[in-house]
Design goal:
This protein is mostly beta strands and 238 residues long. It is built from no helices and 19 strands. The chain has strands spanning 3-4, 8-11, 36-42, 49-54, 57-64, 72-74, 77-85, 95-99, 104-112, 115-120, 133-140, 147-152, 160-163, 175-177, 180-188, 203-207, 210-212, 217-224, 230-237.
Length: 238
């Protein structure tokens, strides 16, 4: 059983590859430009360090496997985000983004047939009802194999399955509850009568509690751990 500490990214409304904003033009070159941010989670197994490029220019370099970049300011408009092994050639897979003003996003870089693949994590449905909190889980752990994912939420003391089947690149919907501590547990997939057992049978990962106040939401991103097994990054809004 592994216990992985959470990493909190204090970002705004959207979880994805974030970019900046302009108060004058789409190129974002004026002196009064507003800016957004891009954070990148390095979840690739094929390279130990990663560079991030926006419109062909390096904006972050040497991002180690299993780590998260600092917030990177980027201009609004049509932007192309690329990644590459540090000092190498960019991956043929790119993100083409129409960047809105004041938007904030997180990109997760994973391996896809040994090609670096930056993908976005959406925040659709992230706004909780007044006085509530929300949490969702994204499975980007390619090497984990079939898994079941459970959660413990603030208004219920027991463990509840989150979604099944929970295949690679699956994202659960947001679950809403009271403010307080959430917890996510990952287990080897098991089926009893076609559904997961009431409790995990072979726990692979227990994510440290994710504490959410009223009106906050978070996404737990499951990735391959460079040291083996599964890791988790918690992307928390506001």
């Amino acid at each position: 059983m592994r216990n992985i500490a959470q990493v909190r990214l204090l970002i705004g409304a959207a979880l994805v590859a974030a970019l900046a904003c302009s108060d004058s033009d789409s190129d974002g070159t004026g002196p009064g430009d507003l800016t957004g941010t891009l954070r990148v989670i390095q979840a690739s197994q094929s390279t130990t360090a990663l560079d991030v490029l926006v419109d062909g220019s390096v904006v972050a370099s040497g991002l180690d496997a299993g780590t998260v970049s600092s917030a990177i300011p980027i201009s609004t408009g049509q932007r192309t985000v690329e990644v590459r092994p540090s000092g190498g050639s960019p991956s043929p897979t790119t993100l083409h983004l129409a960047v809105a003003a004041d938007s904030q996003y997180t990109a997760v870089v994973i391996d896809s047939s040994s090609v670096l693949n930056p993908i976005v994590v959406t925040d659709t449905g992230a706004v909780p009802a007044a006085g509530k909190s929300k949490l969702q889980v994204a499975n980007l752990a390619r090497l984990a194999g079939p898994i079941d994912v459970y959660r413990r939420q603030p208004d219920f003391d027991g463990i509840i399955d989150l979604a099944f089947p929970f295949d690679y690149r699956t994202m659960s919907g947001y679950v809403q509850s009271d403010p307080g501590d959430w917890q996510v547990l990952v287990a080897t997939e098991a089926r009893v009568g076609g559904v997961p057992p009431a409790e995990p049978q072979d726990t692979l990962l227990i994510v440290d509690p994710v504490t959410l106040a009223a009106d906050q939401a978070a996404t737990v991103v499951l990735t391959d751990d460079p040291a083996g097994g599964i890791a988790a990054v918690v992307v928390q809004e506001r």
